[in-house]
Specification:
By secondary structure, the protein is mostly helical. It has a domain of about 130 residues. It starts with a helix and ends in a 32-residue tail after the last helix.
């Protein structure tokens, strides 16, 4: 077994719920999830960029079992890593309102060129950052938001049981059922003809 594979296996033991997943498998899974949210016209370009980034990440994980262990932590994800990098980019350059509007409409991504060295500095910072507590708070907020949405959907006026109307509210006396008045036909009926609806 090579040193790289050993680092993957050592890291796998530390991550808990994804015991058999390698760095490459985790990153590939995260890449597919991220690409689903990308506009189709940019998907190939994003895939090429992610492939370059993931290739470098895999090399770093092979060289350092500690780095691999951090990448495989359950609360670490490449999506959160990209959010971290975006915050760093916003410190360098604030996008114009036009760029923001185009990005909201998914017509054009906000692009800020940075060197690969700077990008990997930020990626390393993210994976070294102890953000488990922040992640857990974020998950609690999401769960609370989902729960409140479900409650809003389910909290409606309680439906009256069908039998309440027939049996009365206490289930005893039946309400007076009056025969409904038969509507007279607006058309003249011919003598000797029967209507199926009057039988």
């Amino acid at each position: 077994m090579t040193a790289g594979k050993q680092s993957h296996k050592a890291a796998e033991g530390n991550k808990g719920d994804r015991k058999n997943m390698t760095v490459k498998e985790k990153l590939k899974q995260e890449e597919e999830k991220l690409l689903e949210s990308v506009n189709n016209s940019y998907r190939d370009m994003m895939r090429a960029q992610f492939d370059c980034i993931f290739e470098e990440l895999e090399e770093r994980c092979e060289k350092s079992p500690e780095y691999a262990a951090r990448v495989l932590l359950s609360h670490k994800s490449f999506a959160r890593c990209m959010k971290y990098a975006m915050k760093k980019i916003m410190e360098i350059r604030t996008p114009t309102e036009k760029e923001k509007e185009l990005a909201r409409k998914q017509e054009a991504p906000i692009v800020t060129p940075v060197s690969s060295d700077v990008l990997f500095e930020w990626i390393d910072e993210y994976y070294e950052l102890d953000d488990k507590e922040a992640y857990e708070k974020e998950m609690q907020k999401q769960e609370a938001a989902q729960t409140s949405k479900k409650k809003k959907r389910t909290v409606k006026k309680p439906a009256k049981p069908l039998l309440d109307g027939l049996l009365g509210k206490e289930g005893g006396d039946a309400p007076d059922l009056k025969p409904s008045k038969v509507k007279k036909s607006r058309r003249k009926e011919l003598d000797g003809q029967l209507s199926l609806f009057q039988i």
